[in-house]
Amino acid sequence: MSSLPLPPDTYREFVQRYPKIAEGWEAIASAGREGPLGEKTARLIKLAVACAALREGAVHANVRKALAAGITREEIEQVVALTAGTLGLPATVAVFSWVEEAFGGNGSAG
To answer: Which pTM was predicted?
Structure first.
């Protein structure tokens, strides 16, 4: 598995300005990693949650992190397809567009 990509400049600026919030956020993330799920499964679940919550920035971030973790484009796209039954087609197409943008940002656009 490769290292995580750098977060966007805006994120880095925010956590630099508010380090205590960043520390709290990392504590929450660390606690969530405890348990029986492997890294790949956890990352795909986090992507699915970001999709379901219609959080564009979180979708972008989770796609970047998934690719860095060796998760394939096809696996990521299946997560998006699985959301269609819950989100409906218009929201799923929006999520798909965000995923495609994230692929493009990683040089993986097809």
So the answer is: 0.81
